[in-house]
Amino acid sequence: MAGRQVVVVGAARSGIAAAELLVRRGAHVTLTESRSTFDAAPHLREAGIRLELGGHQRETLATADLIVVSPGVDVEQPVFAAAREQGIEIIGELELAFRWLRGRVIAITGTKGKSTTTTLIGRMLAAAGREVLVGGNIGVPVSAQVEMSTPESIHVIEASSFQLETTTRFRPWIALWLNFADDHLDRHPDVASYAAAKARIFANQTGDDWAVVNADDAAVMEQSAGTAAQRVRFSPSGRIDEGFVASREWIVRRTATGEQPLVPVAAVELTGVHMLHNAIAAVAVSSIAGVPPDAMVAALAGFRGLPHVMEPVGDVRGVRFVNDSKATNVEAARRSIESFAQGVVAIIGGRYKGGDFTELREPLRTRGRAVVAIGEAAGRVRAALADTVPVIDADSMDVAVERGFDAAGPDGVVVLAPACSSFDWFSDYAARGDAFKAAVERLKRKIASLN
After folding, report:
1. Which domain covers residue 394, as residue numbers?
2. pLDDT at 451 over 80
3. Does 277 lie in the same domain as 192?
4. Is 334 found in the same domain as 188?
5. Is 184 a residue of the active site?
6. Are residues 131 and 43 in the same domain?
7. What are phi and psi for residue 156, nearest 5 degrees?
């Protein structure tokens, strides 16, 4: 990279990490950003990075030796056309970082459950005494880990479709595809394009690598059929002859000669059946990586999940509140609702990004008491679900929590399962989850003051 002209597009955390890595490696770096300012700008200028703010300029991109895009940047924008016509290489931050990693890579993708499973795999490897670096779409950008990478490192990387679609050489030692459902159709032109982006996780694997796939998911099985890697299956339903399943209170590896018990199901302290499925996948990957069962059990002990992922928030007069703000698509919301036997009031809505809300009718018909519709998608939510359960409108998170509480009483559960992005009311899903938790705390104080 020494002396090369590199343009990094997008000044979110991945773009900033890429720019800092590149300038350390001797490149002449220009970081372009649509905003007119951002907090890290002075630091980046001091590091020798040229900033181009207020929009991405076609001329800047067309004169680069290399373009590196942040995951949030759509490379199909017209501004990239001239650079593409000139044959300038356009890659993502994940691809850039991978080219400098010295350790092996375990990559995890899927529509739902990536962060929890990535975290679990990292914990299991660490419990086994491995040198582990967890990052990617969760936590630390991979570019920020390059300097720490050694031949003994195992990089556990959560990889989104946006990151994978801009890879060219990215090759995981173990690639895990958890599941697939419609999502991000506000960015990908269609479901096939979204699936193809996910499938790039297998594109460069060889017979020395491993592909761990969900045997119950037809799309995952179809997209992984041509992989050159050794394909290992896991099955949430248990309906496979060979692979990783839950059987008779154990997560086991089933083979032609029998079942090898690995982890007691009781060791999984996470809420929701789908969380057990994530644990099965984590056990499958960790087993291939050589983690002994006692380390897997140790890693599960005390792990009750991540913030904003089926996160218990509290109890108000017998009504439970659960924050699943990261359930940003319909499939994720469905799994949230199905985690409870009955009495569910689901807070649904936000900025619509594709998917069919009518897929929530069946779980709501058997488990739901009501839906509270919020945000820009509230009208779509009402149109899809009003003939199944009562739909209550709310114009703020505080109102949504209070109306959810009223509808759920006396013994129900209010779950924030938006099935949408957060960008109508909030900066991201975490801000939305924090607002939900704060609203629950205000409701607690309000109820207490009435006693």
Report:
1. 311-450
2. no
3. yes
4. no
5. yes
6. no
7. -100, 110
**pLDDT per residue as tens digits for the range 386-404:** 999 999 999 999 999 999 9
The residue among 60, 92, 124 that closes a domain is 92
Model confidence at 335: pLDDT above 70: yes
Q: Which one is catalytic: 28, 137, 326, 329?
A: 137
The total domain count for the chain is 3
Q: Choosing from 28, 112, 155, 184, which is the catalytic residue?
A: 184
Q: What is the pTM of this model?
A: 0.90
Indicate if 225 and 343 belong to the same structural domain.
Answer: no
In the annotation, is 112 catalytic? no
**Active-site residue identified among 28, 56, 112, 114:** 114
| Average confidence (pLDDT) over 426-432 | 94
